[in-house]
Amino acid sequence: MKALVYHGPETKAWEEVPKPTITDDTDAIVRVDATTICGSDLHILKGDVPEVTDGRILGHEAVGTVESVGSGVKHVKAGDRVLVSCITACGACRFCRESRFSQCLGGGGWILGHLIDGTQAEYVRVPFADTSTYPVPDGVDDEALLMLADILPTGYEVGALNGTVQPGDVVAVIGAGPVGLSAILGAKLSTPAHIVAIDLADSRLEAAKQFGADITVNNSSEDPAAVLAEITDGLGADVTIEAVGIPSTFDLAVSLARPGGHIANIGVHGKPVTLHLEDLWSKNVTITTGLVDTFSTPMLLKLLQGQHLDAKRFVTHRFELDEFETAYDVFARSADTGALKVVLSRPAPSD
Ligand SMILES: NC(=O)c1ccc[n+]([C@@H]2O[C@H](COP(=O)([O-])OP(=O)(O)OC[C@H]3O[C@@H](n4cnc5c(N)ncnc54)[C@H](O)[C@@H]3O)[C@@H](O)[C@H]2O)c1
Ligand SMILES: [Zn+2]
Ligand SMILES: [Zn+2]
Fold first, then answer.
1. Which atom of ligand 1 is nearest to 179's Cα?
2. Residue 46 neighbours by CB under 8 Å, 6+ apart
3. Model-level pTM?
4. For residues 205 and 196, what is the distance between their CA atoms, to the nearest angstrom?
5. Which is the closest atom of ligand 1 to the Cα of 158?
6. 156: CA distance to ligand 2 center in Å?
7. Would you say the CB of residue 291 lies under 6 angstroms from ligand 1?
């Protein structure tokens, strides 16, 4: 089969690799029907995620069709259509029992496209298939569903919920990529008074308006602190959400929060960041970090089915599976291309 293989920083190739086989009796082999690229894949390619080693197939989001399952898989069977979550869960360890699947002690967590081969391939081996996939509900569009593999639970759990967005809050979201936009959608569920989106790219800020930000700030030319001061009597945001993953945006998230405010970090960081406790110790702020658990996926699925979540709006570009080189280029140059999520799909069988 063909897959997108990482060969060290800045190097990747769509190449022939062995098709995966069942190695544990709780595995499923899933034919990938649609997959996408995450900002975390760009961090991997920058060399920010050193656990990803040469030869790894990237990708942690997919909708697909189960081809075969191991003897220990009870609820998923060949032919089922499934959402493959970015987080794998053994279902039995202490953290899985607490719905903290990202911290799974039984061999799960963020493993796909990270510690084991991932979804940017024609086929993927999904461990713990019963507890790491969701059946595709009738009437739900594949592309919309794919947005629930990672970005929507991430923005909601690690952004809105960790930031404890309350009705009437002023929420500042730094980074209006797919994850920041998901945080905007997640924050909106709690009816904040204002959502301020901050990004360097006007195309992303335009998208932020469509996803529900009422104020946008291009921090290459405008001062976000001044904009926030104006709408908060000089106090700063109730909640800031960092969705970029570089030191300067974490600093910005901390500096824009009001005393007693919440700073929710979502970004994957590859470099150390200085925490200015000499300023912060007396500010009563709460800083949270998080790898998405995906415990909210069933709830988000209900919102999607009830037409309360416009997930398909994320999809700006569509490619066939073998067009990964172009798809990565379009996603990485989002400021020029206007890309949000790029979907790569298996070509429909010809008649
Ligand atoms: N914690 C988790 O579980 C989790 C899950 C998924 C993704 N992530 C991380 O979330 C982050 C965002 O992911 P994405 O897919 O939206 O990425 P992305 O690369 O598409 O978007 C990042 C955005 O940040 C903007 N940006 C860059 N530098 C900036 C600056 N100095 N000031 C303001 N904006 C700036 C870019 O213009 C871009 O719009 C990444 O770090 C990704 O790795 C974390
Ligand atoms: Zn991701
Ligand atoms: Zn577990």
1. 16
2. 9, 10, 270
3. 0.96
4. 10
5. 1
6. 14
7. yes
